[in-house]
Specification:
The chain has 248 residues and is α/β, with parallel strands linked by helices. The protein has one domain (7-245): 3-Layer(aba) Sandwich (Rossmann fold), CATH 3.40.50.150. Helix 5 links the parallel strand 3 (66-70) and strand 4 (90-96). A 7-stranded mixed sheet has the order 5-4-3-6-7-9-8, with helices on both faces. It has a two-stranded antiparallel sheet with strand order 1-2. Helix 1 packs antiparallel against helix 4. Helix content is 31%, strand content 24%.
């Protein structure tokens, strides 16, 4: 991931209180990706709450980057990442191997990948995965808490696999529903939220440096104590976002 080594070609950008450098080319690519008329209307309806332009800029995504997106779901961010990295970049959509064993489990994401042209769907076990080449960025949105639960309840294994997949200097972007600081691991299953401080400790233990935290998705109206599917907060939870860097 080229992090704007030539300062004269960079402009300053503040995203959620974290000052970062964003090239004019990257800024234009992100804006075009979010404005893409091919995006489903249902995705566009979520933009006000999810702020995808700010999140992609905060992560530092640029044209030509190689990205691994973990648990892409319906492809909300797959579309935006694909368009941002462009024809010289690539997105690996990493889906749980169990999905591939279900009849039709990969149909939607495979069809989306075919339509975008620079996306490859890769069924993996998150606690021990590899990609065919080191990547600039590993991206996950609203999934980190899940990796504390069920079959993937080995967050150290997940973080180690991410660390291994990244190029030196690469970024692990983690965004998730925020629990109260100090809430601990129990809320990952009870509320489907993540304690930001626990996530910070886990990422640091894996060897990452938490380079920045965005507050763009803060919501003071969310007490962070209700489940994310509770009618009072669904779609409007407070979220945290970390830019965690692998040492170069």
């Amino acid at each position: 991931m080229r992090r704007l080594a030539v300062a004269l070609l960079s402009v300053g950008l503040v995203v959620g209180g974290a000052a970062i450098a964003q090239s004019p080319t990257a800024s234009a690519a992100i804006a075009a990706a979010v404005a893409d008329a091919a995006r489903p209307e249902a995705d566009r309806a979520r933009d006000a709450a999810r702020k995808p332009d700010q999140m992609v800029a905060f992560a530092g995504v640029e044209p030509g980057d190689i990205v691994a997106e973990m648990s892409p779901g319906g492809g909300y961010y797959t579309r935006i990442l694909s368009k941002t990295v462009g024809p010289n970049g690539h997105v690996y959509a990493l889906v749980p191997a169990a999905f591939a064993q279900r009849p039709g489990g990969l149909d939607n994401i495979t069809a989306l990948a075919a339509s975008l042209g620079n996306v490859t769907v890769v069924p993996v076990t998150f606690t021990d995965f590899t990609v065919e080449k080191p990547v600039d960025l590993v991206w996950t949105s609203e999934n980190y808490h899940d990796w504390h639960n069920g079959e993937t309840a080995n967050i150290a294994g997940v973080n180690a696999s991410v660390f291994k997949a990244l190029k030196p200097g690469g970024v692990f972007f983690v965004e998730d529903h925020a629990a109260l600081d100090g809430a601990g691991a129990a809320v990952t299953q009870e509320l489907h939220r993540m304690d930001p401080e626990l996530a910070r400790q886990e990422l640091t233990a894996a060897g990452f440096t938490i380079e920045a935290e965005s507050d763009a998705l803060r919501n003071p109206d969310d007490a962070r104590t209700a489940g994310v599917r509770d009618s009072g907060v669904q779609g409007h939870t407070e979220k945290f976002a970390f830019r965690a860097r692998k040492p170069g």
